[in-house]
Design goal:
11-stranded mixed beta sheet, alpha/beta, 13 strands, 246 residues
Length: 246
């Protein structure tokens, strides 16, 4: 695992024999439900369980409703690894592994919209509804030049900005936009993607051995087919893509 022995990494990541894994419960692609004990089910929880098994420790899930609150808690000592989108703004506090899956992000335009392509969106006067502090919001903040971002604190609120005509397009993950199509007759998803959110595993920056271990674990998990098997197990084929080698 990146030249780091699991025992060495466990000293940093799980010094008390329990790996506290922070999970973003708001990502319905990576967390598909809860078991009878109330623990999360999905690709992300399974990745955390596999990491704990490699380290020879047990796993304890630390749920967060949104990725930004998970990232903000990086220095609070409440989790040892966090499974969220790797973004430069978050990387100031978190050492991320390479991505294990990618999720395409694009735009949904309402019925009758003149916006026909991705290039049409970043223009003066165009308003983009987006979930605040999501990974794709952080990307848009860095890359949008002419259009205006209109943020909501919930995914439903971002959709409402579009339906209330306070925005011209809705930016979100493609699988989520497919569900919105059913609620918005005549709406269409624009071809292509403006980014692909890189879902990764992170730890606090001072955990150098732990970070190196996570890097190696993720690369091996992709190469061995583990990530692909988890995607299939949880019914996410065609919605989640195994990330390319880091």
């Amino acid at each position: 695992m990146g030249g780091v022995m699991p025992s060495q990494a466990a000293t940093e990541l799980a010094p008390n024999g329990v790996l506290r894994a922070a999970i973003n419960m708001g990502n319905f692609l990576l967390v598909t439900g809860k078991d009878r004990a109330g623990d999360p089910i999905g690709v992300a929880p399974d990745m955390a369980r596999e990491i704990a098994a490699q380290l020879g420790v047990s796993v304890h899930y630390v749920p967060f409703a949104r990725p930004n609150t998970l990232a903000d808690a990086a220095e609070d000592g409440v989790w040892d690894i966090g499974l969220i989108g790797a973004e430069p703004a978050r990387a100031r506090m978190i050492a991320f592994s390479p991505a294990y899956v990618e999720i395409e992000a694009t735009y949904l335009a309402p019925a009758g919209s003149p916006l026909a392509s991705l290039a049409d969106v970043d223009q003066p006067g165009v308003r983009i509804a987006v979930l605040a502090k999501s990974a794709y919001d952080l990307w848009l903040e860095r890359n949008i030049v002419h259009a205006t971002l209109v943020r909501s604190n919930s995914a439903d609120g971002a959709t409402k900005l579009l339906t209330d005509r306070q925005a011209d397009v809705l930016a979100a993950l493609r699988p989520g936009l497919r569900a919105e199509i059913e609620r918005l007759p005549g709406a269409r998803i624009l071809d292509g993607r403006f980014t692909a959110v890189q879902q990764a595993v992170g730890t606090r920056r001072e955990n150098a051995a732990g970070a190196a271990f996570l890097h190696g674990f993720v690369e091996e998990a992709k190469a061995s087919g583990l990530v692909a098997r988890l995607i299939e197990r949880h019914g996410m084929v065609g919605r989640l893509m195994v990330a390319p080698p880091g």
